[in-house]
Specification:
Elements lengths: L5 E4 L5 E5 L7 E7 L3 E6 L4 E5 L5 E6 L6 E3 L5 E12 L5 E10 L7
Antiparallel strand pairs: 1-2, 3-4, 4-5, 5-6, 7-8, 8-9
Length: 110
């Protein structure tokens, strides 16, 4: 993601498409989901949004310091942030949490 939005490039660096993202955020996390949808997270505001290929917002939640994000098969979202990893359900509620020392940048569930 950059100031233009989410930019998709081919293997030669040619821009294929740009998907607009909400303005005023420092986008730090990105996950490509099935159905040509994307999760993006802003570490500056904690905003996490799921957008489709047209840029239409499909879901949103907020986790302060959200950095790494991972869409799970059950529709939940795993979020790495300051001193913890949380799992959010589709209502945006925390359903699981693991505390950690320091800033967690990425988290994946096996």
């Amino acid at each position: 993601a950059n100031r233009k939005g989410l930019v998709e490039l081919d293997t030669k660096g040619k821009e294929l498409r740009t998907i607009a993202l909400p303005k005023g955020h420092f986008w730090a996390g990105l996950d490509h989901l099935p159905g040509d949808r994307f999760l993006v997270s802003s570490s500056s505001t904690g905003l996490i949004v799921e957008i489709d290929s047209t840029g239409k917002e499909r879901w949103r939640a907020n986790v302060p310091g959200a950095c790494g994000i991972n869409g799970l098969k059950n529709g939940h979202v795993l979020v790495a942030t300051r001193g913890r990893v949380v799992e959010l359900n589709r209502a945006g509620k925390i359903v699981w949490e693991k505390k950690s020392k320091g800033y967690v940048r990425r988290a994946h569930r096996r």
